[in-house]
Design brief:
Layout (H helix, E strand, L loop, with lengths): L1 H24 L3 H21 L3 H18 L5 H19 L10
Helix pairs in contact: 1-3, 1-4, 2-3, 3-4
Amino acid sequence: MKAALTRIVSYALGAIYVLIGAIIFVDDPMLRLLWVIGSMFMAFYAISAMAIEGSATVVAYLIVITVSLWDEHISGELRLEGTLWAVFALSNRECGCRGCRVAV
C-alpha cells in the first residue's frame, strides 16, 4: 500500500513539475537549457537516492519523455495533451490490475 501511494504521489509531482517548469521556462532559451539539464540531473539523482527505485524511475521516464516533447515546435495544446498522455501511459503501465488497462 505504501509503494502504491508513493507511486501515485510521484506521478502527480512529476507531472506538476514538468508542466510548471515548461510554462515558466518556455520563453528564454538559456533558462530552458538550464532547466532541462537540472531536470535530467534531478531525475537520475532521484533514482540513486530514493528507497523505492520504481517510483523514481517512472518520474525519470516522465521527465525525459515530456522535456523533449516541450522542445518541439507544436502548439501548446498538443504539448499539454502529449504530457498528459505520457502520464496516463506510464501510470497505466504500472497499474497491476487488468481492469485499469486500456487499449490506446
